[in-house]
C-alpha cells in the first residue's frame, strides 16, 4: 500500500511538472527580466561623477572672500560669464532666473541649491557693473552668488572646470559654453550647454535628485 501510494504521489508530481513546467519557467524568466529592467532603470537614474573640483577663492560683490568650500553640502550650478556678452551669457542668466523661482517653489533655493556665476572679465565687470547685471535677472543673493577675481585667478578656476577663455581684439570673448552641476561633496556631475542648449527640465530634475 505504501509503495503504491509513493508511486502514485511521484506520478502526480511528475504530471504536475509535465503540465505546468512552461508556466513555471515563464514565471522565473519574468522575474529575472523584471530584475534586469529594474536595475537598468535604477542605473539610468544615477548621475555619474565626472571629476572632483578643488577648493578655490574668489570675491563676492562686496569684496569679501568667497571660498568654494563655503558652499560644501549644497548642490551648485556654476556658470562662467561676462556682462558684455551679447547673447549666450544673458540668455543663460535668464534661464537661471527661471530655475531660481522653480527652486524657491520647492524650498530648495539657498538652503540646498545655490548658483555661482563667475565673471572672467574683471577689468570691465567691476562690483557695481556685475551687481547691476545681476539685478536685471532678479537675483536673490541668498542663493545666487556673483563672483569675480583677478583675471588669471578666474582663468585658473575656469581651467579646472574645463572652460577655455580667449579675449578678442574687440574686447569680446570666445569661451566654452558650459553650465556645470556640482554636488555637495564637490564632484562635477553634469556639464550642460548654455542659453538655448540648456535643458531646463533636465537640469531641474538633476538638482532635485542631488538635493534629495
TrEMBL record:
Residues 47-212 form the Thioredoxin domain. Keywords: Copper, Disulfide bond, Membrane, Metal-binding, Transmembrane, Transmembrane helix. Pfam families: SCO1-SenC (PF02630). The chain crosses the membrane at residues 20-42. One of its GO terms (molecular function) is metal ion binding. Cu cation binds at residues 85, 89, 175. InterPro entries: SCO1/SenC (IPR003782), Thioredoxin-like_sf (IPR036249), Thioredoxin_domain (IPR013766). Disulfide bonds join 85-89. The keyword Metal-binding applies. Gene3D superfamilies: Glutaredoxin. PANTHER family: ELECTRON TRANSPORT PROTIN SCO1/SENC FAMILY MEMBER (PTHR12151), LINALOOL DEHYDRATASE_ISOMERASE DOMAIN-CONTAINING PROTEIN (PTHR12151:SF25). Belongs to the SCO1/2 family. This is Protein SCO1/2. The lineage of its organism: Bacteria, Bacillati, Bacillota, Bacilli, Bacillales.
Amino acid at each position: 500500500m505504501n509503495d503504491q501510494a509513493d508511486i502514485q504521489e511521484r506520478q502526480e508530481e511528475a504530471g504536475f511538472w509535465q503540465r505546468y513546467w512552461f508556466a513555471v519557467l515563464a514565471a522565473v524568466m519574468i522575474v529575472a527580466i523584471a530584475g534586469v529592467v529594474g536595475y537598468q532603470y535604477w542605473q539610468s537614474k544615477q548621475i555619474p561623477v565626472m571629476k572632483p573640483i578643488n577648493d578655490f577663492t574668489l570675491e563676492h560683490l562686496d569684496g569679501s572672500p568667497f571660498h568654494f568650500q563655503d558652499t560644501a553640502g549644497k548642490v551648485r550650478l556654476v556658470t562662467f560669464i561676462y556682462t558684455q556678452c551679447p547673447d549666450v551669457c544673458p540668455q543663460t542668466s535668464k534661464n537661471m532666473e527661471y530655475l531660481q523661482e522653480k527652486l524657491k517653489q520647492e524650498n530648495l533655493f539657498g538652503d540646498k541649491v545655490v548658483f555661482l556665476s563667475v565673471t572672467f572679465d574683471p577689468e570691465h565687470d567691476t562690483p557695481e557693473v556685475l551687481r547691476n547685471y545681476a539685478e536685471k535677472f532678479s537675483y536673490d543673493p541668498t542663493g545666487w552668488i556673483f563672483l569675480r577675481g583677478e583675471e588669471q585667478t578666474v582663468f585658473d578656476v575656469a581651467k579646472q572646470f574645463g572652460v577655455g577663455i580667449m579675449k578678442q581684439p574687440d574686447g569680446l570673448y570666445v569661451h566654452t559654453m558650459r553650465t556645470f552641476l556640482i554636488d555637495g561633496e564637490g564632484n562635477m556631475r553634469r556639464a550642460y550647454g548654455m542659453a538655448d542648449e540648456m535643458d531646463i527640465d533636465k537640469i531641474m530634475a538633476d538638482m532635485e535628485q542631488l538635493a534629495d
